[in-house]
Design a protein that fits this description.
Blueprint lengths: L1 E2 H12 L7 H13 L3 H6 L4 E2 L1 H15 L4 H5 L2 E3 L2 E3 L13 H12 L8 E6 L5 H9 L3 E7 L2 H13 L5 E5 L12 E6 L14 H4 L15 H13 E10 L5 H10 L5 E6 L5 E7 L1
Parallel strand pairs: 5-6, 5-8, 6-7, 8-9
Antiparallel strand pairs: 1-2, 3-4, 9-11, 10-11
Helix pairs in contact: 1-2, 1-4, 2-4, 6-7
Length: 286
C-alpha cells in the first residue's frame, strides 16, 4: 500500500521529465479522478493508504501524461463556461480562449431584442459540443444546432447534450463544404474552425500535434480555408438580421476581416480579445 502523499510525489517526478506548466496540478487531477475525491481531500488525507489497483492506474496515467497524452482524454473531463464537458480522443479539448466566443454571443443576445425571441443558432464544427452546449444552457430561448463531419464529434456532443439535460440543442452530421443539406435559416452562426496553417501543425506541442485530431486543426495552407467557406455558407443560410461570430488565431485579425469585408454583406464588424490580450473573436452583423 502507498499513501496519497507518496503517489503525488512519485507522480511529480515522472511528469517533471517533460516541460509542463504545472505537473503538481496534473498529478492532483489524476489522483482526484481515480479516487473520485476533490483536491482538498487529497491535502487533508495525505497519509491515507491507496489500494494497489488504484496506485497502478495512477502510475500508468502519470507515465501516459509524461508522453504528452492530454489529461482530459484520460479523465474525460474539461471545464468550460462553468460546465463539465465530456471529452474523448478524436475531439479537440475545449480551450479557455474559446469562452470569449461564447461570452460574445451571450452578451449580444442579452443586450438586444434577441433575448425576447426564439433564436436559432448554428455551431459549425462543434467537436465536443462545448460551444453549442454552453449556448443552449445559458440561452434558454435558443434552439442550437451542433454540426460536425466527424462521427466521434457527433457522439461526444450528444453525450454532453444528454449530460446537461438540454432539450434545445441537437446535432447535425454534415460537411460544411457540401452544405446543401442545411435547409434552415439561422439568426446566429458561430464557429471555432480549424485555423492552424498546415505546415505549423507539426511544430505545435506534442499534446496537440500528436494526440488531438488534425481535422480540427488544419485550416489549409494559409489557415484561412474554413473562414472563406463559412462566410460563403453564412450568406446562404442567414435570417435578415443575423450575426456571424468566429474564433481566430492571434495573428489572423486582418486577414479574416478582409474575408468578411469581401463578402459585402456585413454592416458592422466587432473584435474581442481573449484574457491574454490577443485578438480572438470577429463578429459580423448584417
Amino acid at each position: 500500500m502507498v499513501t496519497i502523499e507518496k503517489l503525488l510525489k512519485d507522480g511529480i517526478k515522472v511528469i517533471e521529465q517533460r516541460e509542463f506548466n504545472n505537473p503538481f496540478l496534473d498529478v492532483q487531477l489524476i489522483l482526484s479522478f481515480l479516487l473520485k475525491k476533490d483536491k482538498i481531500y487529497l491535502h487533508l488525507h495525505r497519509n491515507e493508504d491507496v489500494d494497489e489497483i488504484t496506485a497502478k492506474a495512477f502510475y500508468e496515467m502519470a507515465e501516459k501524461r509524461n508522453e504528452g497524452y492530454p489529461l482530459q482524454y484520460m479523465t474525460h473531463s474539461q471545464e468550460f463556461m462553468g460546465l463539465d464537458i465530456y471529452v474523448q480522443e478524436g475531439v479537440l479539448v475545449p480551450r479557455p480562449d474559446t469562452e470569449t466566443l461564447v461570452e460574445k454571443i451571450i452578451n449580444i443576445v442579452n443586450k438586444s431584442e434577441l433575448k425576447n425571441n426564439t433564436i436559432k443558432i448554428l455551431d459549425i464544427g462543434t467537436g465536443s459540443g462545448a460551444i453549442a452546449v454552453s449556448l443552449g444552457y445559458y440561452l434558454k430561448n435558443s434552439i442550437v444546432t451542433a454540426m460536425d463531419i466527424s462521427d466521434i464529434a457527433i457522439e461526444t456532443a450528444n453525450i454532453n447534450i444528454t449530460k446537461h439535460n438540454l432539450h434545445n440543442v441537437k446535432t447535425l452530421k454534415g460537411d460544411i463544404f457540401d452544405y446543401d443539406f442545411i435547409d434552415e435559416k439561422f439568426d446566429i452562426v458561430i464557429s471555432n474552425p480549424p485555423y492552424i496553417e498546415k505546415k505549423i501543425i507539426s511544430l505545435l506541442p506534442v499534446e496537440v500535434s500528436v494526440f488531438e485530431p488534425k481535422l480540427a486543426l488544419d485550416g489549409g495552407e494559409d489557415g484561412l480555408d474554413y473562414y472563406r467557406h463559412i462566410v460563403h455558407v453564412f450568406n446562404k443560410i442567414h435570417t435578415d438580421e443575423a450575426i456571424l461570430s468566429v474564433e481566430i488565431g492571434y495573428d489572423q485579425k486582418e486577414k479574416v476581416t478582409e474575408i468578411f469585408n469581401n463578402a459585402i454583406i456585413f454592416n458592422n464588424i466587432e473584435y474581442d480579445k481573449d484574457l491574454g490580450g490577443n485578438d480572438r473573436v470577429i463578429t459580423g452583423f448584417l
